[in-house]
Design goal:
Elements: H1 3-37, H2 47-64, H3 78-109, H4 112-122, H5 125-152, H6 154-162
Length: about 170
């Protein structure tokens, strides 16, 4: 196997867990939004948007994990990195969620400022915060598992959860 193909394989394998996580998470969020907005006439996300969003967010997490700012507490107890990453990822998710809604209103109102004013006037805040709470809890779960795997190793975590070692397969 060439050096380039080995590097590509490594990147693709690293992309799979966060992308699957975000595919699940965004699908759950889309379902919750569809249930909350049923009958309101507000459009919900399509499955293509969810898949593209999951790929973008999955790659973003892989890139973010390389930044020193994200891995701020590597030598402290896991709770520090889990809390830090959960906070950062939740804030980014909140900004993306708001920007996604803003984009819809921007197109409708014909301008950024007008779209933002219309969004602030019409947004259903309890729905927005409900989605954020669910996202924060799911992101917390992801960060917890990610840090456990980073700390204990993939094989050890596999053995803890499934009782048998994964034989080092990746």
């Amino acid at each position: 196997m060439s050096k380039l193909s080995a590097e590509i394989k490594k990147e693709v394998v690293a992309l799979i867990p966060p992308t699957l996580f975000f595919l699940f998470t965004l699908s759950l969020i889309a379902l919750l939004r569809a249930l909350m907005l049923k009958g309101s006439g507000i459009p919900v996300s399509s499955w293509v948007q969810i898949a593209v969003g999951a790929l973008i967010l999955g790659k973003s997490v892989v890139i973010a994990d390389l930044l020193p700012l994200i891995n701020r507490y590597p030598d402290r107890p896991l709770a520090y990195n889990i809390a830090w990453k959960t906070t950062i990822y939740t804030l980014v998710a909140m900004l993306i969620h708001y920007a996604e809604r803003l984009f819809d209103y921007w197109k409708e109102a014909g301008g950024f400022v007008a779209g933002n004013e219309k969004l602030l006037a019409e947004i259903i805040w309890p729905h927005f915060w409900a989605i954020q709470i669910v996202l924060a809890l799911l992101i917390f779960g992801y960060c917890t598992m990610h840090e456990l795997v980073r700390s204990l190793g993939r094989d050890r975590v596999h053995e803890i959860f499934f009782g048998t070692p994964s034989n080092g397969q990746r």
